[in-house]
Amino acid sequence: MKGLYTALMCSFDEKGNVNEKGLREIVRYNIDVQQVDGLYVNGSTGENFLISKEQKKQIFDVVKNEAGDDVKLIAQVGALNLDEAVELAQYATNLGYNAISAVTPFYYKFDFDEIKDYYNTILDSVDNDLIIYSIPALTGVNMNLEQFGELFENEKVIGVKFTAPDFFLLERIRHAYPDKLIYSGFDEMLLSASVLNVDGAIGSTFNVNGRRAKQIFELAQNGQIGEARELQKVTNDLIAAILDNGLYPTIKEILKVQGVDAGYCRKPMKALDAAGVKQAKQIAERHL
Ligand code: HMN
Protein backbone atom coordinates (compact mmCIF):
# COMPACT_ATOMS: atom_id res chain seq x y z
CA MET A 1 0.00 0.00 0.00
CA LYS A 2 3.01 2.33 -0.17
CA GLY A 3 3.43 4.96 -2.86
CA LEU A 4 1.75 7.92 -4.49
CA TYR A 5 -2.04 8.08 -4.56
CA THR A 6 -4.09 10.62 -6.44
CA ALA A 7 -6.89 12.16 -4.40
CA LEU A 8 -9.26 11.56 -7.26
CA MET A 9 -11.38 14.30 -8.77
CA CYS A 10 -14.88 13.45 -9.90
CA SER A 11 -16.51 14.80 -13.03
CA PHE A 12 -20.00 16.27 -12.49
CA ASP A 13 -22.38 17.67 -15.07
CA GLU A 14 -23.86 21.16 -14.77
CA LYS A 15 -26.71 19.84 -12.61
CA GLY A 16 -24.32 18.10 -10.22
CA ASN A 17 -24.88 14.52 -11.44
CA VAL A 18 -21.90 12.21 -11.73
CA ASN A 19 -20.59 12.26 -15.32
CA GLU A 20 -19.57 8.60 -15.56
CA LYS A 21 -17.75 8.93 -18.87
CA GLY A 22 -15.73 11.84 -17.53
CA LEU A 23 -14.97 10.02 -14.28
CA ARG A 24 -13.66 7.04 -16.25
CA GLU A 25 -11.42 9.38 -18.25
CA ILE A 26 -10.02 10.87 -15.04
CA VAL A 27 -9.30 7.39 -13.69
CA ARG A 28 -7.55 6.31 -16.90
CA TYR A 29 -5.55 9.54 -17.13
CA ASN A 30 -4.26 9.07 -13.61
CA ILE A 31 -3.33 5.44 -14.19
CA ASP A 32 -2.01 5.61 -17.75
CA VAL A 33 -0.50 9.09 -17.98
CA GLN A 34 0.28 10.23 -14.42
CA GLN A 35 1.22 6.64 -13.53
CA VAL A 36 0.36 6.93 -9.87
CA ASP A 37 0.40 3.87 -7.62
CA GLY A 38 -3.16 4.24 -6.44
CA LEU A 39 -6.34 6.27 -6.17
CA TYR A 40 -7.92 7.78 -3.05
CA VAL A 41 -11.61 7.87 -3.86
CA ASN A 42 -14.28 10.18 -2.39
CA GLY A 43 -11.91 12.36 -0.42
CA SER A 44 -12.08 16.12 -0.12
CA THR A 45 -10.91 16.43 -3.73
CA GLY A 46 -13.74 14.16 -4.85
CA GLU A 47 -16.13 16.75 -3.32
CA ASN A 48 -17.32 13.92 -1.08
CA PHE A 49 -18.92 16.17 1.50
CA LEU A 50 -21.15 17.75 -1.15
CA ILE A 51 -22.76 14.60 -2.57
CA SER A 52 -25.37 12.02 -1.62
CA LYS A 53 -24.75 8.51 -0.31
CA GLU A 54 -26.02 7.08 -3.62
CA GLN A 55 -23.55 9.20 -5.56
CA LYS A 56 -20.71 8.05 -3.31
CA LYS A 57 -21.63 4.43 -4.08
CA GLN A 58 -21.92 5.19 -7.77
CA ILE A 59 -18.41 6.70 -7.75
CA PHE A 60 -16.98 3.69 -5.87
CA ASP A 61 -18.59 1.43 -8.51
CA VAL A 62 -17.38 3.33 -11.55
CA VAL A 63 -13.82 3.77 -10.28
CA LYS A 64 -13.43 0.10 -9.37
CA ASN A 65 -14.97 -0.96 -12.66
CA GLU A 66 -12.58 1.27 -14.65
CA ALA A 67 -9.42 0.71 -12.60
CA GLY A 68 -9.88 -3.01 -11.98
CA ASP A 69 -6.70 -4.24 -10.34
CA ASP A 70 -4.43 -1.82 -12.22
CA VAL A 71 -3.67 0.22 -9.11
CA LYS A 72 -4.44 0.16 -5.39
CA LEU A 73 -7.72 1.73 -4.35
CA ILE A 74 -8.54 3.42 -1.05
CA ALA A 75 -12.17 4.32 -0.30
CA GLN A 76 -12.78 7.35 1.90
CA VAL A 77 -16.00 6.51 3.74
CA GLY A 78 -15.94 8.91 6.68
CA ALA A 79 -19.22 10.72 7.32
CA LEU A 80 -20.88 12.49 10.21
CA ASN A 81 -23.71 9.98 9.96
CA LEU A 82 -21.95 6.93 11.34
CA ASP A 83 -24.54 4.54 9.88
CA GLU A 84 -23.68 5.93 6.47
CA ALA A 85 -19.94 5.55 7.10
CA VAL A 86 -20.48 1.89 8.06
CA GLU A 87 -22.66 1.25 5.02
CA LEU A 88 -20.09 2.81 2.69
CA ALA A 89 -17.23 0.91 4.34
CA GLN A 90 -19.06 -2.35 3.72
CA TYR A 91 -19.98 -1.33 0.20
CA ALA A 92 -16.41 -0.44 -0.81
CA THR A 93 -14.99 -3.52 0.90
CA ASN A 94 -17.39 -5.76 -1.03
CA LEU A 95 -16.32 -4.08 -4.26
CA GLY A 96 -12.72 -5.05 -3.51
CA TYR A 97 -11.21 -1.75 -2.36
CA ASN A 98 -7.77 -2.46 -0.87
CA ALA A 99 -8.39 -0.30 2.19
CA ILE A 100 -10.83 2.19 3.59
CA SER A 101 -10.11 5.57 5.07
CA ALA A 102 -12.23 7.84 7.22
CA VAL A 103 -11.92 11.51 8.01
CA THR A 104 -12.02 12.35 11.71
CA PRO A 105 -15.61 13.26 12.65
CA PHE A 106 -16.01 17.02 12.43
CA TYR A 107 -18.38 19.96 12.99
CA TYR A 108 -19.45 18.96 16.54
CA LYS A 109 -16.66 19.05 19.07
CA PHE A 110 -16.33 15.31 19.64
CA ASP A 111 -14.05 14.25 22.46
CA PHE A 112 -11.37 11.65 21.87
CA ASP A 113 -13.45 8.74 23.23
CA GLU A 114 -16.12 9.59 20.69
CA ILE A 115 -13.57 9.74 17.89
CA LYS A 116 -12.18 6.36 18.93
CA ASP A 117 -15.66 4.88 19.06
CA TYR A 118 -16.35 6.21 15.55
CA TYR A 119 -13.30 4.39 14.14
CA ASN A 120 -13.91 1.19 16.05
CA THR A 121 -17.57 1.13 14.96
CA ILE A 122 -16.57 1.41 11.31
CA LEU A 123 -13.85 -1.21 11.69
CA ASP A 124 -15.99 -3.71 13.61
CA SER A 125 -18.35 -3.76 10.63
CA VAL A 126 -15.85 -4.73 7.93
CA ASP A 127 -13.02 -7.09 7.17
CA ASN A 128 -10.72 -4.42 5.83
CA ASP A 129 -7.88 -2.13 6.88
CA LEU A 130 -8.31 1.55 7.62
CA ILE A 131 -6.25 4.67 7.16
CA ILE A 132 -7.11 7.59 9.43
CA TYR A 133 -7.69 10.80 7.48
CA SER A 134 -6.36 13.65 9.61
CA ILE A 135 -6.82 17.16 8.22
CA PRO A 136 -7.02 19.53 11.22
CA ALA A 137 -7.28 22.72 9.14
CA LEU A 138 -10.63 21.61 7.74
CA THR A 139 -11.99 19.49 10.61
CA GLY A 140 -10.67 21.35 13.65
CA VAL A 141 -9.61 17.96 15.07
CA ASN A 142 -6.02 18.05 16.31
CA MET A 143 -4.85 14.71 17.69
CA ASN A 144 -1.63 14.32 19.60
CA LEU A 145 0.96 11.52 19.51
CA GLU A 146 -0.69 9.53 22.31
CA GLN A 147 -4.09 9.73 20.63
CA PHE A 148 -2.72 8.50 17.32
CA GLY A 149 -1.10 5.72 19.35
CA GLU A 150 -4.43 4.74 20.90
CA LEU A 151 -6.09 4.55 17.47
CA PHE A 152 -3.14 2.53 16.15
CA GLU A 153 -3.73 -0.06 18.89
CA ASN A 154 -6.48 -1.45 16.66
CA GLU A 155 -4.46 -3.64 14.28
CA LYS A 156 -6.84 -2.87 11.44
CA VAL A 157 -5.78 0.78 11.61
CA ILE A 158 -2.79 0.51 9.31
CA GLY A 159 -1.87 4.16 8.99
CA VAL A 160 -2.70 7.81 8.67
CA LYS A 161 -3.09 10.34 5.92
CA PHE A 162 -1.32 13.22 7.60
CA THR A 163 -2.51 16.51 6.10
CA ALA A 164 -0.91 19.05 8.40
CA PRO A 165 2.20 21.23 8.43
CA ASP A 166 3.27 19.91 11.86
CA PHE A 167 6.55 18.20 11.02
CA PHE A 168 7.46 17.79 14.69
CA LEU A 169 4.41 15.62 15.22
CA LEU A 170 5.00 13.83 11.92
CA GLU A 171 8.54 12.91 12.98
CA ARG A 172 7.32 11.73 16.39
CA ILE A 173 4.67 9.48 14.80
CA ARG A 174 7.23 8.10 12.32
CA HIS A 175 9.65 7.33 15.10
CA ALA A 176 7.08 5.82 17.47
CA TYR A 177 5.19 3.74 14.89
CA PRO A 178 7.64 2.51 12.26
CA ASP A 179 5.22 -0.21 11.12
CA LYS A 180 2.26 2.08 10.44
CA LEU A 181 1.84 3.71 7.03
CA ILE A 182 2.12 7.48 6.90
CA TYR A 183 0.92 9.33 3.81
CA SER A 184 1.79 12.98 3.33
CA GLY A 185 -1.29 15.07 2.53
CA PHE A 186 0.01 18.45 1.46
CA ASP A 187 1.52 18.25 -2.02
CA GLU A 188 3.45 21.50 -1.54
CA MET A 189 5.24 19.88 1.45
CA LEU A 190 5.90 16.51 -0.18
CA LEU A 191 9.69 16.79 -0.07
CA SER A 192 9.75 17.87 3.58
CA ALA A 193 7.54 14.92 4.51
CA SER A 194 9.51 12.50 2.33
CA VAL A 195 12.72 13.43 4.12
CA LEU A 196 11.03 12.25 7.31
CA ASN A 197 10.50 8.87 5.66
CA VAL A 198 6.78 8.81 5.00
CA ASP A 199 5.52 5.76 3.10
CA GLY A 200 3.67 7.67 0.45
CA ALA A 201 1.49 10.63 -0.32
CA ILE A 202 -2.12 11.37 -1.26
CA GLY A 203 -2.78 14.58 -3.15
CA SER A 204 -5.20 16.52 -5.30
CA THR A 205 -2.59 18.04 -7.60
CA PHE A 206 -1.35 14.55 -8.54
CA ASN A 207 -4.36 14.51 -10.92
CA VAL A 208 -2.22 16.71 -13.16
CA ASN A 209 1.26 16.56 -11.61
CA GLY A 210 1.52 12.93 -10.48
CA ARG A 211 4.63 12.03 -12.44
CA ARG A 212 6.62 14.94 -11.04
CA ALA A 213 5.39 14.23 -7.51
CA LYS A 214 6.52 10.63 -7.82
CA GLN A 215 9.96 11.79 -8.91
CA ILE A 216 10.21 14.08 -5.86
CA PHE A 217 9.28 11.18 -3.61
CA GLU A 218 11.72 8.75 -5.22
CA LEU A 219 14.60 11.25 -5.33
CA ALA A 220 14.12 11.97 -1.63
CA GLN A 221 14.09 8.26 -0.84
CA ASN A 222 17.41 7.94 -2.71
CA GLY A 223 18.88 10.85 -0.78
CA GLN A 224 19.07 13.05 -3.91
CA ILE A 225 17.79 16.06 -2.03
CA GLY A 226 19.16 18.77 -4.34
CA GLU A 227 17.35 17.36 -7.38
CA ALA A 228 14.21 16.78 -5.34
CA ARG A 229 14.30 20.39 -4.14
CA GLU A 230 14.44 21.65 -7.74
CA LEU A 231 11.37 19.60 -8.63
CA GLN A 232 9.52 20.70 -5.49
CA LYS A 233 10.22 24.31 -6.49
CA VAL A 234 8.76 23.77 -9.98
CA THR A 235 5.83 21.91 -8.40
CA ASN A 236 5.19 24.69 -5.91
CA ASP A 237 5.12 27.28 -8.70
CA LEU A 238 2.34 25.18 -10.18
CA ILE A 239 0.52 24.68 -6.87
CA ALA A 240 0.74 28.37 -5.93
CA ALA A 241 -0.78 29.33 -9.28
CA ILE A 242 -3.53 26.71 -8.92
CA LEU A 243 -4.40 27.82 -5.37
CA ASP A 244 -4.48 31.42 -6.50
CA ASN A 245 -6.99 30.67 -9.26
CA GLY A 246 -9.24 28.28 -7.24
CA LEU A 247 -8.03 24.78 -6.35
CA TYR A 248 -10.54 22.22 -7.63
CA PRO A 249 -12.02 24.12 -10.60
CA THR A 250 -8.52 24.94 -11.82
CA ILE A 251 -7.37 21.32 -11.63
CA LYS A 252 -10.50 20.36 -13.58
CA GLU A 253 -9.77 22.99 -16.22
CA ILE A 254 -6.17 21.77 -16.55
CA LEU A 255 -7.48 18.21 -16.99
CA LYS A 256 -9.70 19.51 -19.80
CA VAL A 257 -6.62 20.99 -21.48
CA GLN A 258 -5.19 17.46 -21.37
CA GLY A 259 -8.31 16.15 -23.14
CA VAL A 260 -9.99 14.76 -20.01
CA ASP A 261 -13.69 15.53 -19.52
CA ALA A 262 -13.39 16.64 -15.87
CA GLY A 263 -16.73 18.47 -15.89
CA TYR A 264 -17.95 20.92 -13.28
CA CYS A 265 -17.60 21.23 -9.51
CA ARG A 266 -20.61 20.76 -7.24
CA LYS A 267 -22.30 23.85 -5.88
CA PRO A 268 -21.71 25.81 -3.71
CA MET A 269 -18.26 25.67 -5.30
CA LYS A 270 -18.35 28.24 -8.02
CA ALA A 271 -17.27 27.78 -11.60
CA LEU A 272 -14.33 29.69 -13.04
CA ASP A 273 -15.27 32.79 -14.99
CA ALA A 274 -13.78 33.42 -18.45
CA ALA A 275 -10.66 35.02 -16.96
CA GLY A 276 -10.22 32.05 -14.61
CA VAL A 277 -10.50 29.58 -17.48
CA LYS A 278 -7.91 31.53 -19.45
CA GLN A 279 -5.64 31.62 -16.42
CA ALA A 280 -5.98 27.84 -15.92
CA LYS A 281 -4.93 27.27 -19.52
CA GLN A 282 -1.90 29.50 -19.01
CA ILE A 283 -0.99 27.61 -15.84
CA ALA A 284 -1.02 24.37 -17.81
CA GLU A 285 1.17 25.88 -20.52
CA ARG A 286 3.66 27.47 -18.13
CA HIS A 287 3.94 24.96 -15.34
CA LEU A 288 3.37 21.48 -16.81
C1 HMN B 1 -8.43 14.40 -0.37
O1 HMN B 1 -8.99 13.89 0.60
O2 HMN B 1 -9.01 14.64 -1.40
C2 HMN B 1 -6.98 14.77 -0.34
O3 HMN B 1 -6.23 13.77 0.12
C3 HMN B 1 -6.76 16.05 0.29
C4 HMN B 1 -5.33 16.51 0.04
O4 HMN B 1 -4.63 16.44 1.24
C5 HMN B 1 -5.38 17.89 -0.49
N1 HMN B 1 -6.02 18.74 0.49
C6 HMN B 1 -7.11 19.45 0.20
O5 HMN B 1 -7.54 19.56 -0.93
C7 HMN B 1 -7.77 20.14 1.32
C8 HMN B 1 -4.04 18.40 -0.92
O6 HMN B 1 -3.64 17.62 -2.00
C9 HMN B 1 -4.11 19.89 -1.33
O7 HMN B 1 -5.17 20.10 -2.24
C10 HMN B 1 -2.83 20.36 -1.99
O8 HMN B 1 -1.74 20.08 -1.16
C11 HMN B 1 -2.90 21.86 -2.29
O9 HMN B 1 -2.91 22.61 -1.09
Q: Keywords, please?
A:
TIM Barrel, eight-stranded parallel barrel, 51% helix, binds 2,4,6,7,8,9-hexahydroxy-5-methylcarboxamido nonanoic acid
How would you characterize this protein structure?
By secondary structure, the chain is of the alpha/beta class. It has a single domain (3-224), classed as Alpha-Beta Barrel (TIM Barrel), CATH 3.20.20.70. It is built from twelve helices and eight strands. It has helices at 20-33, 53-67, 82-95, 112-124, 136-139, 145-152, 167-176, 190-195, 206-221, 225-245, 247-257, 274-287; strands at residues 3-7, 38-41, 72-76, 99-103, 130-134, 157-162, 181-184, 200-203. Strands 1-2-3-4-5-6-7-8 form an eight-stranded parallel beta barrel, surrounded by four helices. Strand 7, helix 8 (190-195) and strand 8 (200-203) form a beta-alpha-beta unit. Helix 2 packs parallel to helix 3 and helix 9 runs antiparallel to helix 10. The chain is globular. The two termini are 27 Å apart. The model has no long low-confidence stretch (mean pLDDT 98). Bound molecules: 2,4,6,7,8,9-hexahydroxy-5-methylcarboxamido nonanoic acid. Residues 7, 40, 43-45, 138, 163, 185-188, 202-205, 239, 247 line the site of 2,4,6,7,8,9-hexahydroxy-5-methylcarboxamido nonanoic acid.
